[in-house]
Amino acid sequence: MFFKLCKYEFKSILRTLVPIYLAVIAVSFINMFMGVGSLSNGYYNNLIQNISFGKDILGLFQTVSMFAYFGVMVALSVLTLIVIIQRFYKGLLCDEGYLMFTLPVKPWLLIAAKGTTALVMTVASGITAGISILMLLIGALGPVDFFAAVASPELWLKIGQLFQAVPSWPLLMLEVLVLIIFSGFSKLFHLYFSMSLGHLANRHRILMSVVAYIGISMVLSFISGFFMIMANSIPFFQTFFNSINFDSGISGFTAAMHLVLIASIVACVIQSAIFFFGSERILSKYLNLE
Amino acid sequence: MNQELITARGLTKSYGTKTAIDHIDLSVGHGRIIGLLGPNGSGKTTFIKLLCGLLHPTSGELKIDGHSPGVESKAIISYLPDRMYFADWMRTSDLAAFFADFYADFDRTKALEMFKSLGIGQNDRIKTMSKGTKEKAQLALIMSRKAQLYLLDEPIGGVDPAARDFILNTILTNYNENGTVLLSTHLISDIERVLDEVIFLQNGKVVRHDTVDNIREQEGKSVDQLFREIFTYGH
Known about the structure:
By secondary structure, chain A is an all-alpha fold. Chain A folds into 2 domains: 1-151, no CATH class; 167-290, no CATH class. Chain A has helices at 2-33, 45-48, 54-92, 96-100, 107-141, 143-151, 153-165, 169-199, 205-233, 235-243, 249-285. In chain A, helix 1 packs antiparallel against helix 3, helix 1 (2-33) packs parallel to helix 5 (107-141) and helix 5 (107-141) crosses helix 6 (143-151). The longest helix of chain A has 39 residues, at 54-92. By secondary structure, chain B is of the alpha/beta class. Chain B starts with 5 loop residues before the first strand and ends with a helix. Chain A: Keywords: Membrane, Transmembrane, Transmembrane helix.
């Protein structure tokens, strides 16, 4: 059932996001040759030196494609966020909710399917942005220089040295990956929980969702600030931190990284769990579609 | 299979201070066509939403085929809400695929046949359909399930009289013989001929639950007339 729910979720999200992904790639491709990417290199100097207004025309092309580039990048992030919010709000708390909540599935599965799909799409948007930046980089360096740089043994030697210096790098990478997943979930479920709380109000549900979102953010800042103060002033934490060897160069740095990453993962898992079960309880017990 | 399909004991639902369903005691058997009748705001939609699990009772007990509203009850209930509940980008074929994925009792061939006889193409998008066509498409899907309980909230509310007859015939000829159809409406004269039982709701209370034959014999009048008496003199 979970995968069937995800399948329909993907179908409806992809309709909106695939066109913007294509637009991002297309505009990046143009910029690779004309705009942001090619500003620093002299691709077109030979071509335009004999035309009196050639430089102006080229400048115009570059400006327009740069604006287009920033436009689609902003659209990419804003649309991803809006689609994620809409898929939950319209898909569960408005008319479509009549369909979803009468399916023979438990409400937590509905939330999990929405969350999983939203996370995958956030990653997909991130990858699209990454590809776009890579394309600009290729444009700026010129394809030949770029691939020469990527293929150069020096670069790989440096990377190899870095890996050798940090023997626990596979663990670090895994921790980063887990952190990305759970910090993604914590932010998504924060949105879902806010909308579920807003749904409890009889009127002004969207406004109440925004209020709930801001309220929760404030509580989170307060709690993390509180932990900082605790960590600084309680003897147990002080001895704990002192026991970690921070001073011996890269290995001390790695130890600190592990600590920070694991602490962040734990914080994100706790947040995700609270927001997820909070939303689940509200949608199971206090569902009230209008 | 339980003796009774629906049993409600002391079923109450309130929104804040307003009581929409007020201590309903009721039992409904299998294989019946039942009209849930009452004026606007009498609690018809609330009662149906409680049955299909969209709302939770404030107090009291509600069982559908022995189960509290939940996954088991949702699997045997086919619900037609009083609104369009599909995303408007979906095509007719998407709708059928969706139902086939989630409901084991859905008969896809039957649904596609019904779409065909309604003149709805497989690639028609919901967005481009008229209000009446949307209602018909949704009804075709609902009635293509072999459900134990069909809950139809105002199934003939938004369509013209000719379509009304078509919809009633669709309901009559397609529902599962062992299943029960519970339909809410205030257009009683149109549906009276198909009903086995009626439940009159007023201010969240059941004021009468009887078979149509009994009403005709004891009162010597049609359900429509009785409805007008109960709800006109009452106010």
